[in-house]
């Protein structure tokens, strides 16, 4: 398939544009490129360093600061400083509800399955917008350091990211003005950085052990003919080097017999202890004893004690490795290579334990903080067609998806996916008793289907009448090696099914593809803004519908005043919907939700509460 480079200023084809690789991390992000010596290199914007802390701060005017400058506000202004946004990307409130305490900023509880939003001051931000701020900063740094526009990127995500999290990452890239050529798994990128998978004749099984500051995951990959397949993943998204620091702090508190009540009052002291603990941990990666003081508190730690302190956490990671092996039906002896990723794998005890577990010494020569970004740069270089030794596999030139609420394009198979491929997603109805669902298949990169190419349309008929939100309609796309797309829709509760075959490439010329790509880049920002407004609107409309139905059905559980006040909130939301102001709609929807939450709890009507859930397609 054609590899297209576009000069944004002129719209002409261009061969030498740099494509960067981006590691969009939970704690830190970084960007790499292939230097003129054909070696991957992390971009170091003078004076700013390699790592960009994944932190966004909003000042009183609502302007965003990103990176080290933003990090300082974590302590002085935590409510307006967003960190770890990657944990929220593509997630609903339900997904993160148990962990609300770990975030110092406000996450909106809208009681449904739609994606989370974060409230900063009077404004609502999606994790996509916040991640886009981080990506914009990375783009700007790359442009500054390389002295050339950077418009195309490969972005990495954890292997366990689901479809919605991957799509959110793509959207963030788009909003930052980047054409995201591919979303690559972090363990795949790390393997590529070590040259694994670059030889098309190589067949290998790889374990990638990634222990960062706050998260741990292990992936078992197989490579065959240059194609990576994730066999299994395991891990704990709340386990990492921060836990090592905490164990050290507890140890010092006990050793110095510090009073818990005093410490609870003195957050400054706790913070100093935590920072000192991290310092000790890092020092013990290259020496045997750490011995310092904070005032009259002795902060002493020897390597052996440190290893005893962290042993239970490390054992937990090895349990995950065991589980990952079981899931991939392999034994440790069948793993050919082990790759280390993440700052915490610098701890010699971690390395030794991993080596012992897999029975081989892991790859650790590349800086574990940089290895993913470096691999992403290699993947970018492969996609740019700069490596003649590597076979470029057939890929889909344009995204394939279906129309959802408000005329939005929901991508099912993203552009540049390797062929053959299959992907699917689940949908539901938006109206009570809906028995037909129209499925319209589109091709293209724009957020509104009307700007894309329509490929086909069919009706899934005979869905049994159920309350909105209850039917489960799986839509599956299968694109075979000959480029034929089979779209299948099946309602899982009743088994009603419909299927069609389409040839997406029919009538598609290189010129059309090129034009569609250029259009998607020039319109990226307004497209994403429009998408967010439509999403807010659909959510708002759905909420009005649900709230009105709720009053109709369960008014008897409420007082007259409660009904009247609910009516006022509904009216306010309707007025905001009429004005088509995204933030206003979200604000009023939030207020209506907050107001009616106790009523729903009072009634506990399963059918109605499930009608509030689910993504829906207009019939
Ligand atoms: P990451 O999330 O991959 O950036 O990893 C950050 C984690 O690595 C933090 O917990 C750091 O304290 C830890 N780390 C960084 N350098 C070292 C080191 N030399 N030894 C042990 N841990 C380290």
Short description:
This protein is of the alpha+beta class and 619 residues long. 37% of the residues lie in helices and 24% in strands. The chain has 4 domains: 201 residues, 2-Layer Sandwich (Nucleotidyltransferase, domain 5); 167 residues, Nucleotidyltransferase, domain 5, CATH 3.30.420.40; 110 residues, Sandwich (Substrate Binding Domain Of DNAk, Chain A, domain 1); 87 residues, Substrate Binding Domain Of Dnak, Chain:A, Domain 2, CATH 1.20.1270.
Q: What is the strand and helix layout of this fold?
A:
Elements (H helix, E strand, L loop, with lengths): L18 E5 L4 E7 L5 E3 L9 E2 L1 E4 L5 E3 L1 H4 L1 H4 L4 E3 L9 H4 L9 E2 L10 E3 L2 E3 L1 H20 L5 E6 L5 H13 L3 E7 H8 L9 E9 L4 E9 L2 E10 L4 H15 L4 H6 L1 H17 L5 E6 L2 E6 H25 L9 E5 L6 H11 L12 H13 L16 E5 L3 E6 L7 E9 L7 E7 L9 E8 L12 E7 L5 E7 L5 E6 L7 H13 L1 H31 L5 H20 L2 H22 L2 H6 L4 E2 L2
Parallel strand pairs: 1-11, 11-12, 13-18, 21-27
Antiparallel strand pairs: 1-2, 2-3, 2-4, 5-6, 5-7, 8-9, 9-10, 13-14, 14-15, 16-17, 19-20, 19-22, 21-24, 22-23, 24-25, 25-26
This protein binds adenosine monophosphate.
Report on this structure.
The protein is globular and about 70 Å long. Helices cover 37% and strands 24% of the residues. 43% of the residues are buried. Helix 6 crosses helix 12, helix 14 (524-554) runs antiparallel to helix 15 (560-579) and helix 14 (524-554) packs parallel to helix 16 (582-603). The strands form 7 sheets. Strands 1, 2, 3, 4, 11 and 12 form a 6-stranded mixed sheet that branches. It contains 17 helices and 27 strands. A hairpin with a 5-residue loop joins strand 24 (473-479) and strand 25 (485-491). It has 619 residues and is an alpha+beta fold. The protein starts with 18 loop residues before the first strand and ends with a strand. It folds into 4 domains: 10-194 and 368-383, 2-Layer Sandwich (Nucleotidyltransferase, domain 5); 199-365, ATPase, nucleotide binding domain (Nucleotidyltransferase, domain 5), CATH 3.30.420; 400-509, Substrate Binding Domain Of DNAk, Chain A, domain 1 (Sandwich); 526-612, Substrate Binding Domain Of Dnak, Chain:A, Domain 2. Adenosine monophosphate is lined by residues 27-28, 212-213, 240-242, 278, 281-282, 285, 342-344, 346-347, 369.
